[in-house]
Amino acid sequence: MKNIIRIFRRDLHRLGTNALALVIIAGVTLLPALYAWFNIAANWDPYSNTGGIKVAVANEDAGTKLEGITTNLGNEIVTNLKGNDQIGWQFVDRYDALQGVQAGDYYAAIIIPQDFSENMVSVLKGDIHRPTIEYYINEKKNAIAPKITDKGVSAVQQEVNESFLEEVTQALVAGLNAFSDDWDGDGSSLGDRVLDRLREGDRSLGKISDALDIFQSLTSSADHLNQGIQALLPAGDSTIDQGQAAIGSLDDLLTATHTAAKEMVDSIDVILDNTMETVDLAGADAVDLLQRLENLEPDIEGTQADLRTLGSQLTTLQSDLNDAAKRLDELEDQDAVGTLADGLRQLERMLDSVQSAVNKAAQQAGDVSGQLTSIRSQLIAAGQKAQQIYEDLGDKIQALQDDDSGYSNQLTILALQQAQRTVGVVSNALSSENLPNFGQTAAEMQKQLQNIASRIGDGSTAIANLRDLVESMDGDFASFASSLRHMSDLLDTAKSLLNRADHALEQGKDVPKGLADQMSALITQIDTSVATARAAGKAAEPAMDAAVDQAYKTLDSVSGLLTQFAGLLPQTQTVLDHMNSALASTAQALRSTKDLVEAARKDLQDIIGDLEDLTASERIQELKDLLKSDASTVSEFMASPVQVETNSLYAVSNYGSAMAPFYSVLACWVGGIVLVAILKVAVDEDEEIYGLKPYECYLGRYLLFLMLAVAQGVIICLGDLFFLGVQCTNIPLFLLSGVVSSLVFSLLIYTLTVSFGDVGKAMAVILLVIQIAGSGGTFPIEVTPAFFQKVNPILPFTHAINAMREIVAGQYGVDYWLDLLKLLVFIPLALLLGLVLRKPLIRMNEFFEERLNSTKLM
User: Fold this and answer.
1) Which residues, at least 6 apart from 810, have a Cβ–Cβ distance to it below 8 Å?
2) d(CA 612, CA 610)
3) Tell me, what's the pLDDT at 563?
4) How far apart are CA 827 and CA 68, in angstroms?
5) Taking the CB of residue 53, how many other CB atoms lie within 10 A of it?
6) Three-state SS letters, 73-100
7) What is the three-class DSSP state of 264?
8) What are the φ and ψ backbone dihedral angles of 93, each rounded to 5 degrees?
9) Which of 71, 365, 813, 843 is 20 to 30 A from 640 via CA?
């Protein structure tokens, strides 16, 4: 303990004997207070100086006339703002206002549009348009200013609303007062007149209600017809998809069949060329050879060899012909032509189905067209009748207005005007200009559908013709194969003649006479058959190509028709949807109009019932007393029916006093950081003080920090109270909270620095940053991110600020002492770190300091 006191005394002696050190210590003691005072003074009462915030106002309102009276609400707003000095209103035009906001000359701009007054009184004219005020704000210029200007604009909006409501209410009550004054003692005669006219209006509304029921029924019928056409569209869409798929399959099959047939014809053409060439050469040789044999020429062995060679050539040629015929048979067995014909027949049936569906849709469209045209004519006729009723009501209203009975007819006039407005809505809705001509639209749709059906019928006919052509190709292939077999049979006969001659030679007999002539005749038949087959093949190939080309064109045409029909379906669906929507809107409008008429009738009937009950003079007198209410009092109440009575608990006189706890506590922490930045925390030894233990060094040097920290806290609090005039309910407790805060903060910062060196100073700064945001000193902690809400209870700032707020605004129970107690909890934590946990860190800190000193920079 002695060494602790010695260290403290030596520190005081060293400071006392050095004038410069004393000046620095004085500055270190005063600097945190200046930091707090300047910030508190800057925030002393900012919301009373909002007159310096410039907000541009541009009035473009052109005004309006109502019942012959000209009014300009925009000018009234400007006049009221000129008497308002809470914000710096600047009255300019639109261009300067917008440019000023963009350039930062104004924080915000309010523009009153040209139609503001007109829209404001539109509620009294029946065609309501909500008035608007354009508001532009520069949020870049300042973070708080937009909140202030928003309040200003809201105040303008509230003032306009209250003024308008007050004026309307005052005019209404004044009219009722005049009506009451005009109500003489003869209440029964006035009541009879009013009742008669009200009953007449009720009967007129009843006729309109009956007409609306008929209109609704007609509209429902048209809607059912429209839905019937829509039900056909999905089936047509499915049929189109099937048709397109069938056309694709037929196209592939047609291509494959055409390719196979063409290859077959080309191959047979080559065979026929070989046949003709071989028959011409071999036949001539065979005839010559047989003639020589018949003439008994020598060289039998050579002749016999020639006969066999010719027979072999004919056998080869016969095999080629048989192969070609077999390939034609295989092509026919595959029934590609038949399959193609079946596909075309299926497509033909499908097109017939599509045509039937389109014809049915066209017929439905025609039915709907007739119904809609009929309904539209009836609605227009009803609208003309409603217009006549509207004009009759207008004549009655004008007659009542021209009556000299004063305000005695006002109730009847109001009721008839309501009825006239209702009839006017019906008349306008049922005019020929506003009723869409859906009958004409449906008729045009019918014409389009009939055109499509006709074109689909043409396509179906073309498919049928193509099918007949394809089926004829099947017979051509069979005839061609038969011709090839016939040639094969002729070659077989020729081989038989050669065999007879060879057999005669083999037996040493004479060759029968006439073989050469028979051979010559066979060769002629074969040549004729080959020529005929070649001619048929040459003629069949162009015909086949033409048929295939015609098939492609027909399929493409039908596909185009289906595509066109598919494109028409969405258009048809769109038109039908529009018709559905319009019919639904019309039905809804009719329902709304009927509801309005029924409501008006109910109101009239209620009024009639009430007037019929008013037979006693006491009831009439009560009504007169009610109508004589003070107009000014009623209008003021309606403009602002609810008033707020504010009761401040723990009232604070100004914003600076409210922010004083935060800035004072912040200054105490800053003071602790300044102390460790200026003063050394390490203790040196000399002849008198040596052999020091770590805890002696820790506590001995901290006494100096403690003395300066207490001085900082006292100076900060005294300046708050007597220099700035911060609100305070208990001066000693306010000083105590400042001293305890400085003590705890200085001990924490000193311990971090002693334990971790320069890293500890950095940790103190990091804690400062976290506590500024997480202590709830400026904004409520509930509006900060979740991290700061979680760390708030464990931050020293939180409890120091709360304790000081208790003294500034007023204490609640023992909250002040609980906050101080929570703050003092950090003292044993700091001592635990400085006296116990610091020992293992001493060598590490010495190592860090040596490494930092070696840089000659840190």
Assistant:
1) 650, 729
2) 5
3) 75
4) 81
5) 20
6) HHHHHHHHHHCCCCCEEEECCHHHHHHH
7) helix
8) -90, 175
9) 71
Which DSSP symbol is given to 510?
Answer: P
Output 330 or 738, whichever has higher pLDDT: 738
Which residues contact residue 159 at a Cβ distance below 8 angstroms, ignoring those fewer than 6 apart? 77, 80
For residue 308, count other CB atoms closer than 10 A to its CB: 12
Torsion angle (degrees, nearest 10) of CA 412, 417, 422, 427: 120
75-89, 115-129, 233-247: range with lowest mean pLDDT:
233-247
DSSP string, 574-642: HHHHHHHHHHHHHHHHHHHHHHHHHHHHHHHHHHHHHHHHTTSHHHHHHHHHHHT--HHHHHHHHHS--
Tokens of 630: 């003070």
Cα separation, 497 vs 503, in Å, equals 10
CA atoms of 332 and 324, how far apart (whole Å)? 12
Pairing between β-strand 88-91 and β-strand 54-59 as defined by DSSP bridges: parallel
Which band of pLDDT confidence, cut at 50, 70 and 90, is reported for residue 264? Answer: low
Lookup: tokens for 647? 């009761």
Percentage with pLDDT > 70 across the chain: 61
The continuous run of DSSP H or E covering 205 comes out as: helix 187-294
Conformation bin of residue 640: beta by default, left when phi > 0, alpha when psi is -120 to 50: beta
CA distance 70 to 579: 45
Tokens of 789: 């809400």
Residues 6+ apart with CB under 8 A from 474: 332, 337, 338, 341
H helix count then E strand count, the chain: 23, 6
Among 417, 421, 433, 426, smallest CA distance to 385 is for: 426
* DSSP annotation string for 596-608: HHHHHHHHHHHHH
**How far is C-alpha 193 from the chain's CA centre?**
59
C-alpha–C-alpha distance, residues 425 and 593, integer Å: 8
Instruction: Centre a 10 Å sphere on the Cβ of residue 615 and count the other Cβ atoms it contains.
Output: 11
Higher pLDDT, 725 or 534: 725
Q: Which two tokens stand for residue 384?
A: 């003309």
Reported as a single tens digit per residue, the pLDDT across 491-508 is 778 778 777 777 776 776
Position 683: which residue type?
Answer: V
With b meaning 16 or more CB within 10 Å and e meaning fewer, what string describes 784-801? beeebeebbeebbbbbbb
64-66/108-112 β-pairing: unpaired
Contact assessment for residue 565 and residue 557, using Cβ atoms and an 8 Å cutoff: no
Beta bridge partners of 743: none
Q: How far apart are CA 835 and CA 694, in angstroms?
A: 8
SS3 55: strand
Closest CA to 826 of 789, 801, 794, 802: 794
Q: What is the pLDDT of residues 754-772, one digit of tens each?
A: 988 888 999 999 999 999 9
Q: Distance (Å, rounded) from C-alpha 136 to C-alpha 692?
A: 70
Burial of 691 (0-12, 13-18, 19+ CB in 10 A): exposed
Predicted TM-score (pTM) above 0.70: no
CA 734 to chain centre: 57
Closest residue by Cα to residue 108 from 133, 139, 77, 75: 139
Provide the 3-class DSSP secondary structure of residue 235: helix
pLDDT at residue 418 in the model: 67
d(CA 488, CA 482): 10
Kindly tell me the burial class for residue 253, based on how many C-beta atoms sit within 10 Å of its own C-beta (0-12, 13-18, 19 or more).
middle
Nearest to 664 by CA among 5, 6, 38: 38
Residue 30: the pLDDT is 94
Q: Which two tokens stand for residue 126?
A: 């029946």
Q: Dump pLDDT digits (tens) for 184-213.
A: 444 444 555 556 666 666 676 676 677 667
Q: Do residues 61 and 114 make contact, with C-beta atoms less than 8 angstroms apart?
A: yes
Q: How many residues does the chain have?
A: 858
Cα–Cα separations (whole angstroms), residue 1 to 695, 699, 747, 842: 10, 9, 19, 21
